């Protein structure tokens, strides 16, 4: 994390192994090959303690910024963004009974107890960029025809992508443009709701 080897939000998956590797090198490997003695290696404990304390201070500061309430069936949570909180509160009051979040946002389904009809839950490059996955998603969309889809500004640049529907899953985006329309303006500048177009009766 401190060497910028991995984004901080990957948390446990990358950070814990990184710390374990550092502990092994500093406390076991280097004393074993004679770079310094075991007594000197114990001095690294202070550096580890300092890093842990620094992380706690950062976490405390991040949580202190979460002051905007979001009322959900699972209780009130707080967000650091007034825009996002307002958008989610509006969504929670909308009465929507099923919702697909794109490219990612399953937490919204969970918090507001709104199920998604699709068997795919996330549409980030690792899950959806492959042509076979995109084809399966298109089949699922055509079969289930969800009434509501929410587009959120999920940054996917960490995967080397410019955006959902921009440099991957263009066919899915084309499907949405053909079969869905915007439901009003962006919700408080954060979330865009798409509603399924009514098919003409024959």
Task: Please give a quick description of this structure.
The protein has helices at 12-32, 38-41, 44-64, 82-92, 106-111, 125-128, 131-144, 170-179, and strands spanning 68-72, 75-79, 100-102, 148-151, 180-182, 192-196. By secondary structure, the protein is α+β, with helices and mostly antiparallel strands.
Walkthrough of the structure:
It is a single chain. The protein has 2 domains: 8-64, no CATH class; 82-196. It has 8 helices and 6 strands; from the N terminus they run αααββαβαααβαββ. The chain has helices at 12-32, 38-41, 44-64, 82-92, 106-111, 125-128, 131-144, 170-179, and strands at residues 68-72, 75-79, 100-102, 148-151, 180-182, 192-196. The strands form 2 sheets. It has a 4-stranded mixed β-sheet with strand order 3-4-6-5. A two-stranded antiparallel ribbon has the order 1-2. The longest helix is centred in the first third of the chain and has 21 residues, at 12-32. The relative contact order is 0.09. The model has no long low-confidence stretch (mean pLDDT 86).
């Amino acid at each position: 994390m401190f060497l910028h080897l991995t984004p901080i939000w990957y948390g446990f998956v990358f950070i814990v192994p990184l710390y374990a590797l550092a502990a092994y090198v500093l406390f076991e490997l280097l004393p074993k090959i004679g770079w310094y003695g075991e007594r000197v290696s114990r001095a690294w404990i202070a550096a580890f303690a300092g890093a842990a304390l620094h992380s706690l201070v950062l976490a405390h500061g991040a949580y202190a910024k979460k002051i905007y309430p979001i009322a959900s069936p699972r209780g009130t949570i707080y967000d650091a963004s007034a825009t996002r909180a307002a958008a989610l509160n509006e969504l929670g009051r909308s009465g929507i009974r099923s919702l697909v979040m794109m490219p990612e946002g399953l937490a919204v389904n969970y918090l507001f107890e709104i199920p998604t009809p699709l068997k795919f839950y996330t549409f980030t490059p690792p899950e959806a960029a492959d042509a076979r996955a995109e084809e399966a998603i298109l089949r699922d969309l055509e079969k289930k025809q969800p009434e509501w889809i929410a587009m959120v500004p999920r940054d996917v640049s960490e995967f080397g992508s410019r955006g959902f529907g921009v440099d991957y899953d263009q066919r899915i985006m084309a499907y949405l443009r053909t079969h869905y329309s915007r439901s009003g303006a962006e919700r408080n500048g954060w979330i865009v709701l798409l509603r399924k177009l009514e098919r003409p009766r024959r």
